User: Which sequence fits this backbone?
């Protein structure tokens, strides 16, 4: 009897196998062709000199050696780190602050949420155009406001000293609402009873925020942190749109992805670009690994 | 005290709203001004002479309707295929047992961890080999297959109770029926999230269309804005008109489906 059931089960199991393979086949075929094979080819490219006709000549570690000696690589890494180190903490703090304000009994909550979310559904290229116009040195509205307060106008985007900061402002503006929505969802999952108990103990809203909200929200904050760092590290669209090739601020705003793009598709240095893309991968991997280890110290999973 | 707190909260939130909304407002206002008016110092707030000149200017120089259709088509095709392909695979990964399952899932997951730049050059070469450079399919082909979408949908399938399927199996339903009639309706929120994410990504995609397509007739809105900028360096009304037209469809979509948008984003934080 039991043997019969077992036999039947395996028959069903085998049928399931077939169904499963059928279900994953389209994805797998596409992933092998457009992701796995390109990944391998790209790694191979990074050890080659790839000419205009995409013929690869093996050059060993030449691209990597060149990369470590290339000033542009170090500068673009520096720019990118600077961007991430400012945009990520500032945007998360702002998102958290707005989420905390919205998590109270307040009228018009959904209208606020909608407006704050708006920048994250808009095209970065379009957003960049608008901000470029706002930052414009001649008739930009930012300079007009500054002049009205008796301050001096500046060429915000042309000046290598301020250009990257302008791009950071746009980056922050675009991401705050998005992260706020995720954090607000996390906040709504925190039981009100913690706050009631803390209030009885005499803890004020600020103390409650740091003693209850932050620790209980730490898994969500961690998620937002990881995703923000990874996407911040790959900033491209806004830089491409806001700072032109001929700009004086070109070098001071060149991010690693920008450098990759220029080498791969403008300068025709495919092998070298491949090495840069591997560098981007390794750096992101290291940062994420550090985060994963570091989280044990501050993230609470209950 | 309490009303004062509420007033402060509103004040702070309104300040944020102002900063968030201003660029949109400025974009729309500028698009209806004349070029001469935008050169004035100090700038005018409302258009002195309301004109739609900027819109006709860009319509004349860019095959705008064509670019718009390219973007729309590419977005719709990406969404439809990605949802179908990811949902099928996600169901198998979440609910079926088969040899090699873990290995294959790890393969999918590891793609999720690799930054997109790694794949770009070889993907370009594949499109070239297929003879598809500067065509509509080039815009969406690699994006039909998504590790992220598969992972997201798998999370949704995993959260459903197993008993449902077992009951259906006992009733004699086969896997296809279970998938189509029992499971699919239950992961609707997941599908909605995926549709929104993919639509947003495909509509706003920038680097990839720029790489594979070169003629404006085959371009999507993002790169078209870039060439608009190159063509009208100092014509800010024209630039803003282009930006307005590029962002409006997604904003309209957002206002219609805002609940789903916001829940979809909130979900990823909780589920991911």
Assistant:
């Amino acid at each position: 009897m039991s043997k019969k059931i077992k036999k039947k089960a395996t028959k069903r199991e085998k049928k399931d196998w077939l169904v499963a393979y059928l279900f994953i086949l389209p994805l797998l075929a596409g992933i092998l062709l457009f992701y796995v094979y390109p990944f391998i080819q790209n790694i191979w490219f990074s050890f080659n000199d790839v000419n205009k006709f995409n013929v690869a000549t093996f050059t060993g570690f030449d691209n990597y050696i060149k990369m470590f000696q290339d000033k542009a690589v170090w500068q673009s890494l520096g720019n990118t780190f600077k961007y991430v180190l400012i945009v990520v903490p500032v945007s998360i703090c702002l998102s958290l602050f707005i989420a905390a304000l919205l998590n109270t009994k307040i009228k018009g909550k959904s209208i606020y949420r909608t407006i704050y979310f708006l920048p994250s559904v808009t095209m970065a290229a379009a957003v960049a155009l608008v901000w470029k116009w706002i930052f414009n040195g001649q008739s930009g509205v930012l300079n007009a406001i500054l002049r009205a307060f008796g301050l001096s106008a500046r060429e915000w985007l042309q000046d290598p000293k301020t250009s990257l900061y302008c791009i950071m402002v746009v980056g922050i503006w675009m991401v705050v609402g998005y992260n706020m929505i995720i954090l607000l969802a996390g906040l709504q999952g925190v039981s009100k009873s913690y706050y009631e108990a803390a209030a009885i103990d005499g803890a004020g809203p600020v103390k409650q925020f740091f003693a209850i909200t932050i620790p209980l929200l730490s898994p969500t904050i961690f998620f937002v942190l990881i995703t923000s760092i990874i996407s911040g590290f790959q900033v491209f669209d806004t830089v491409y749109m806001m700072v032109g090739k001929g700009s004086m601020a070109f070098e001071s705003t060149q991010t690693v992805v920008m450098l990759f793009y220029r080498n791969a598709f403008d300068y025709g240095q495919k092998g070298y670009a491949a090495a840069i893309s591997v560098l981007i991968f390794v750096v992101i991997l290291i940062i994420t690994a550090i985060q994963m280890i570091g989280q044990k110290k501050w993230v609470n999973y209950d | 005290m309490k009303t004062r707190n509420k007033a402060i909260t509103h004040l702070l939130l309104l300040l944020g709203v102002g900063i968030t909304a201003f660029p949109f407002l400025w974009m729309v206002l500028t698009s209806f001004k004349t070029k001469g008016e935008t050169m004035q110092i100090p700038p005018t707030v409302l258009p002195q002479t309301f004109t739609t000149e900027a819109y006709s200017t860009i319509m004349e120089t860019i095959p705008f309707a064509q670019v718009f259709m390219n973007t729309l088509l590419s977005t719709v095709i990406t969404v439809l295929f990605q949802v179908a392909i990811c949902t099928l695979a996600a169901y198998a990964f979440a609910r079926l047992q088969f040899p090699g399952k873990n290995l294959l899932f790890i393969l999918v997951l590891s793609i999720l961890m690799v930054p997109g730049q790694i794949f770009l050059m070889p993907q370009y070469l594949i499109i070239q080999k297929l003879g598809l450079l500067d065509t509509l399919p080039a815009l969406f082909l690699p994006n039909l297959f998504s590790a992220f979408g598969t992972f997201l949908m798998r999370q949704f399938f995993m959260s459903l109770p197993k008993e449902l399927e077992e009951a259906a199996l006992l009733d004699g339903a086969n896997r296809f029926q279970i998938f189509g009639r029992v499971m699919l309706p239950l992961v609707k929120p997941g599908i909605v999230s995926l549709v929104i994410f993919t639509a947003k990504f495909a509509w706003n995609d920038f680097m990839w269309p720029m790489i594979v397509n070169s003629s404006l007739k085959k371009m999507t809105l993002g790169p078209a804005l870039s060439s608009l900028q190159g063509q009208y360096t100092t014509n800010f009304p024209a630039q803003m008109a282009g930006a307005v037209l590029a962002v409006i469809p997604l904003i309209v979509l957002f206002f219609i489906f805002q609940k789903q948008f916001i829940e979809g984003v909130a979900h990823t934080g909780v589920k991911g």
Chain A is about 75% helix and 0% strand. Chain A touches chain B through 94 residues (CB under 8 Å).
